[in-house]
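pls ignore typos typing on phone
pyridoxal-5'-phosphate + seq
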Amino acid sequence: MTYLPALKKTDPKMRDLIIAEERRQWSKIRLIPSENYASSAVLEASGSVLTNIYSEGYPGKRYYEGQQITDQIETLAIERAKAAFGVDHANVQPYSGSPANMAVYTAVLQPGDTIMGLALPQGGHLTHGWKVNFSGRLYHSAPYELDPRTERLNYDQIWKQAKEVKPKLIVAGFTAYPRIIEWNRFREICDDVGAIFHADISHITGLILGGAHPSPFPMADTGITTSHKSLRGPRGAMMLCKAQYAQAVDKAIMPGLQGGPHNQTTAAIAVAFKEASQPAFKEYAAQIVKNAKALADQLLKHNFRLISGGTDNHLILFETFTSKGILGRDASRALDRAGIVANCNLVPFDTQTPMNPSGVRIGTPSVTSRGMKEAEMRKIGDWINEVLTHAQDEAVLDRTAGEIAEFCRSFACPGMDPHNWADDLPVAAQTGKQVAMSRS
Ligand SMILES: *Cc1c(COP(=O)(O)O)cnc(C)c1O
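k done
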């Protein structure tokens, strides 16, 4: 049977590109900590006819007719989100994480109000008050930083700063922080200075739902999460909050910021919550952390310097410049060339530039979705060391790419079936290498 038959007829060029991307995702070790593999069920929901409808408003309060089904779909997603996080209110309409943060700020802040989030170069998100982002332009941003000695949050220092700048809102939750977040400390600080406690759990949602990281809820006043990272859902996001903010955040998204919600995404978010409520998801979350620890230990054996010395979650940030004399961009390029996908990243108090920083950020949600365990992590740690020790050596990169493509054949990717590609001519992958796939 032909795979993607309608595309084959209508737009074979796009079909080739999509299959090439499937092959890439299958044949490489994907370590970008914000990425994952969505299940076939999630992909089915997000590729459904729900994309055909407009449903501005909220269940029971729509502007358009024809909402007999969409109301049920959105209500299901909302109820599952509320139950999963134990929150009073959930809004599943934000198009992605950034607009979700924007909507929360719009709901509870006035332009010019002071916000405190972790500085972007230290692991905060753009939308946590970085100067080129709306959040740093519209609001007065007073970013906090990590402790230079421990490279961890220093809650007493954040408290001291909060007493001085008196923020209206404090954001906790990060993009490159490998340690457990002590939410209760943020609650304490916010209570003391009268700030709103906003938790952005985008990266660690799956860990939280699977019991592998403490939850900020119901402690936090407001919160957001993306649905496509460790939660393994579709591209999307949601806002979660206490009852007192419910009306304000709803209004902030619609009509404040967006028009019609993406119903196909809403449905797929509901599916992701269903999957995350199964016992297997608990194991998944625990394995993500075990894998990250195993990979961290292997990198330490190879004398890489890990930011904060290790990891408690899904993510590892490591130095390549002082450890191996190679800058982050050059390191991540060599790794990709050899079949390991990661991103270069600033490390705390980096002396290099954002375009070619001192470190690399990796994470284990994707490889764990493929069923890889500690033994595979040790192998990956060895490959990373091999590649970064011989980053200029084309022969090493070539050999490693071959080994990794072979290795990856044994680990199925959720949402994909290589038999689908067997009849198609191989499309050159980004490395210029062709990845052979047999029917076996
Ligand atoms: C990924 C992320 C976002 C933004 O999500 P987008 O969907 O890329 O807009 C916001 N906050 C944090 C902490 C994130 O990790």
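Residues 34, 96-98, 101, 125, 127, 173-175, 200, 202-203, 226, 237 surround pyridoxal-5'-phosphate (CB under 6 Å). Residues 44-276 form a domain with the Aspartate Aminotransferase; domain 2 fold (CATH 3.40.640.10). more later
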